[in-house]
Design brief:
Elements (H helix, E strand, L loop, with lengths): L1 E7 L6 H16 L6 E8 L7 H15 L5 E10 L3 H13 L4 E6 L7 H6 L2 E3 L8 H20 L7
Parallel strand pairs: 1-2, 1-4, 3-4, 3-5
Helix pairs in contact: 1-5, 3-5
């Protein structure tokens, strides 16, 4: 299964970008033997529409258009469920084993994601009820994807 990270907002050069890249590089190496191929990052600029609803709709439309045909997606949203790392890894394995070819993990913009995008998502996940900057969410997601690969492979990186 090909994994794509899709986000509204661009990571600027600096330590945050380097840390996210480090975990995504680890995922690129650890994932393929497990059937988890990292396809890359899709970054889209924030919408310039004047209202929140228009911005959310515009960003959702552009995110979905940027994903591969037939791609399903998981969205990161503060209203989502907060699984354990083991549950997240098991869920990725289940989705992979069901034969899905492309899965995207989507991070919305500062206004969040549209209701339509959340409703059409395969899953809605949260890293807790706190609000985090885009850069930190991207680092957390990159690390959790790598951690999921290590859990599925039995690697000792994750200690439960």
């Amino acid at each position: 299964m090909r994994l794509t990270l899709a986000a509204i907002g661009k990571m600027k050069a600096g330590p945050e970008q380097e840390l996210a890249a480090r975990y995504l590089d680890r995922l690129r190496k650890a994932g393929p033997p497990l059937g988890l191929d990292f396809a890359g990052v899709v970054e889209l600029p924030e919408s310039r529409f004047s209202t929140v609803m228009e911005r959310k709709r515009d960003e959702a439309s552009r995110l979905q258009a940027a994903l591969p045909e037939g791609c399903r997606f998981i969205v990161l949203d503060e209203t989502g469920k907060t699984p354990s790392s083991e549950d997240f890894a098991a869920d990725l394995a289940t989705i992979r084993d069901e034969g899905l070819r492309d899965l995207a993990l989507v991070i919305g913009g500062p206004d969040g994601l549209s209701d339509e995008m959340r409703k059409s998502a395969l899953r809605v996940l949260a890293f807790g009820r706190l609000t985090f900057p885009h850069q930190i969410v991207r680092i957390l997601l990159a690390e959790q994807l790598y951690r999921a690969a290590t859990i599925l492979s039995g690697h000792p990186y994750h200690r439960s």
